């Protein structure tokens, strides 16, 4: 009697472990603010943010982490010219922060290939160090584009799933096959629309949002 109970217990325990270790880490959602401390949020291209790398003592020092741009001037001892972590500023070096590296190849925003535990550590540093210590001044253009794309994709996805639901509820007629092929066309049209609209958004962002930028 004890043996099956033990087996059941082990099975439940194994499932628990699997669910803990296999669950994909979901990075903290970043919400973009159009205004920060009463000022319009600034949008930075890689070229723009490079001007704030600590080499000009009259300018603040900016650093991008997860696409959010922080004014890290108060950490001049870490980030100023000739300081230990100067390589991290004037750019979005999210990858370097995530994996604790100062190698030139790692001074980039891309973290897509990193394991979950690194992404989790990155989020901890993002919140505990950067959000807590330094003021946000704006966002990297890539984050704004990504958010716009997600917004469009989500709204289109909703439309597609509504259409699917309506189709399922409607009476199946003899020309069902023909209907399904039409439905396929509609979905393709929707996907085309997502691509087209997001292309337009990408094209418009630099003109509409970069216009807010004023050099200090
Ligand atoms: C053996 C190597 C390292 C040691 C002993 C070390 C040590 C430290 C110490 C003592 C601090 C200061 C904590 C504080 O006063 O708040 C710090 C902060 C920091 N370190 Fe390191 N570090 C090392 C390597 C690295 C590397 C490779 C990176 C690359 C990304 C890095 C990135 C940072 C960052 C971003 C901060 C936070 C600065 C801030 O508060 O703005 N460290 N480190």
Description of the structure:
The chain is of the alpha+beta class. The chain folds into two domains: 35-140, Cytochrome b5-like heme/steroid binding domain (Flavocytochrome B2, Chain A, domain 1, Roll), CATH 3.10.120; 143-210. It contains seven helices and six strands. The protein has helices at residues 2-22, 46-49, 76-79, 94-99, 116-133, 141-169, 176-210; strands spanning 35-36, 39-40, 42-44, 62-65, 68-71, 136-140. The protein has a four-stranded mixed sheet. Strand 4 and strand 5 form a beta hairpin. Residues 206-216 have low confidence and may be disordered. The chain binds protoporphyrin IX containing FE. Protoporphyrin IX containing FE binds at residues 75, 78, 85, 96-97, 100-102, 129, 133. The site of protoporphyrin IX containing FE (HEM) has 10 residues, from helix 4 and helix 5. One of its GO terms (cellular component) is membrane. GO terms for molecular function: metal ion binding. Keywords: Endoplasmic reticulum, Heme, Iron, Metal-binding, Signal.
């Amino acid at each position: 009697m004890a043996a099956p109970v033990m087996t059941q217990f082990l099975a439940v325990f194994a499932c628990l472990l699997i669910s803990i270790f296999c669950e994909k880490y979901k990075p903290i959602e970043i919400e973009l603010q159009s205004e920060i401390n009463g000022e319009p949020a600034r949008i930075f291209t890689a070229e723009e943010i490079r001007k704030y790398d600590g080499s000009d003592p009259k300018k603040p020092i900016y650093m991008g982490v997860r696409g959010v741009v922080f004014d890290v001037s108060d950490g001049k001892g870490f980030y100023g010219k000739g300081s230990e972590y100067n390589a991290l500023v004037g750019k979005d070096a999210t990858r370097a922060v995530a994996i604790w590296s100062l190698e030139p190849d790692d001074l980039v925003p891309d973290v897509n290939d990193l394991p979950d535990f690194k992404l989790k550590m990155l989020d901890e540093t993002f919140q505990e160090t950067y959000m807590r210590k330094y003021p946000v001044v704006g966002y990297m253009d890539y984050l704004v584009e990504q958010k716009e794309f997600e917004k469009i994709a989500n709204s289109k996805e909703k439309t597609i799933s509504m259409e699917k639901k309506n189709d399922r509820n409607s009476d199946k007629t003899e020309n069902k096959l023909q209907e399904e092929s039409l439905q396929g066309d509609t979905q393709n049209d929707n996907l085309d629309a997502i691509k087209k609209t997001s292309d337009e958004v990408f094209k418009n962002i630099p003109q509409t949002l970069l216009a807010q930028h004023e050099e200090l």
